[in-house]
Amino acid sequence: MRADSYLEKKVIYMEQKIAIQDTYGERFQHCWGCGAKNEAGLHLKSYPTEDGSRCICRLTPGECYTGGVPENLFGGMMAVLFDCHGTASAAYFAHHHKGLTLTGDTIIGRFITARLEVDFKKPLPMKKEITITSQAEEIGARKVIVLMQMEVEGELRAKARMVAVGVKDTM
Q1: With 50 as the cut, is the pLDDT of residue 37 above it?
Q2: What InterPro entries does UniProt report for this protein, alphabetically (predicted)?
Q3: What structural domains does the chain harbor?
Q4: How would you label 44-83 residue by residue, b for 16+ Cβ within 10 Å and e otherwise?
């Protein structure tokens, strides 16, 4: 199989899958970064891979998110992207670890950030698609440690490590 058709097949698979953020309960759908019900938000979408070992988020940020260095993404926005993708990934990894799958009826357990460490490697250029991938380093009863990478055109721009904790619906 050609590499191009393999990548196209992966993208089509992700487009047909359910976004993790779309399985959040009503109470948790208002986040500025990933909330489906926040009209002014970014509406980030994270999708698990076919085997469930990773989660992927792709987006091209608007020009208004430029940083102090023109034509490069604001570093705080990079942290926001890691934060929203990381908590969605943690929720999915915990769900998947229990042997569960995502369906149209899933209301996934919600996770929040307890700690986020970001290593900025290179400036992230504007007007380019960003790919954020994640994998679980550790899955516990209430805590998931998530490792993430942010790339543009296959080049590593930042890495992150998140400690995410599960919360109750009544939080």
Answers
A1: yes
A2: HotDog_dom_sf (IPR029069), THEM4/THEM5_acyl-CoA_thioest (IPR052365)
A3: 48-96+109-166 (3.10.129.10)
A4: bbbbbeeeeebbbbeeebeeebebeeeebbbbebbbbbbb
